[in-house]
Amino acid sequence: MHRIIFFIFFIYCNGGYAQTSSETLIDSLSLTQDPLNKIELCKRIAEKLTDSDWEKAITYLDFAEKEAQETKYSEFNLASVYVAKGELYASKDLLDIALDYFLKAQEIYKVQNHEAEAIKVEHYLAIIYAQFNNKEKALHYFFKLYDYQVKNNDSIKIVKILNNIGTLYIKEDLDSALHYFNKGKQIISTLDNHALLGYITTNLGRVYGLKGDTIQANAYFSKSMKLAQNASNKNFKLFAFGAFSKYSLQEKQYDSAIYYANKALDLNSDNAYSFSNQNTTNILSKAYEGKGDYKTAVHYFKRYDQIRDSLNVEEKAVNLERIKLDQDYKIRSKISVIEEEKKRFKLYIAGLMLLLGTLILGMLLIRYRNRNIKSLLEKEQLKIKHQDLHQHLDLKNKELIGKAMSEIHRKEIYNHILTDLKAVKLKAVKKETQQAIDVILQKLQKDMDSDIWKEFELSFEQVHKSFFENLALHHPTLTPKDRRLCALLFMDLTTKEISQITGQSFKTVENSRTRLRKKLELTNEKVNLSTYLNSLSVN
Hints:
This protein is mainly alpha-helical. The protein contains 22 helices and no strands. The radius of gyration is 59 Å and the shape is rod-shaped.
């Protein structure tokens, strides 16, 4: 597995979580209800499980992604989950999948104007595109990183980026590589960072060596070796010794190549089967061959062959694991798509049901409105009918009162005529005249004997059929005079009006009303007499 050199030293200081066990974090996850805490805990658990249980790590990140998607205002957290997934897949060299997640995260950070977070993601994008040998895109992101760090005046990171840009140019454009390494050297020479200065110096030696400028190459490698001898950074020392041994072999300085190649081997003895040792043993084999020591050359070539075979087996195993993980990702993606389709289908069904429910509700509302309108119309018609009936009853009552009044006036007129005739009779001389007046008096007296109130009651009963029946039923001891007063009160006549109709004094009518209340047992009741009598007209 070829690793680009800048992976060794281009690391952001993101800070780390305290060393908490995955079991403790899982317990914390089961206790928390806050969605944002769940997301962060899932990311931390996944980080802990990356090496020991990669599948579980992915499962926790899937859970974090789902939680972030379902939580309001969590686009930023969703992007952080994508970054965690990208890092996880990158750790297994599944760079195409890692790239997909980093691009998703970058898009969210750009939309939300999180420049610092977007830059961190672009760091990953630059490295992945470099590993894909996509120089154009890798440089695009490295230059963006460079501009950002210049703006923030972060000299260390600027040098690291310049070193990475130079490394990208080293195979195809040595002058450009030299330009960026020199820019890095000018900055790092003012800083106290020997390892980073060593990387820049070693790379300058490599470039001048490839350009054939041995004077400059030797000068830079001399500085590089001094820095490596005193350095504590193992990765830098390994890089410097390996680069110088390769340059020495190129210049046919076999003893120097052998010396520094052996130093590199000793430095990396705990990792015997590595790409670094494969390259170093190959240099040793060729250096001994150049010196004519074929026996030692064959020895190192066999070691080189063993390491290469071991790495090929390891790479095949890793490739198999990568294929398996890639298939797992595709299956998981398909399941995710199916679940999304199911969710969309459920939403479609729910929408359809909602639409159907709305239509049914609308129909019911229309029906209810129509029924309500019909009911209101019926009530209005009933009200009009009641008003008509009430007006009709008022008219009938007025007719009854008018008839009673006219009968009383007629009787009064008859009384006056009888009185006048009697006076005339007394003055009449002739007997025939007196007899004629007697006949007239008899006829008038006969008309006077007719019972006006009986006729009134008959007419009243025709209009208010149930009143006298209910009155007799509830109060059977009432006299005809009481019944007559009840009828007049039923028609809501005042004492004054009753006095005029009956020819009685106001006081007499008042007394009659008081006696009637006693007979109706309403003396101690706060009930209007007319209201009570009206209640008796109901069947």
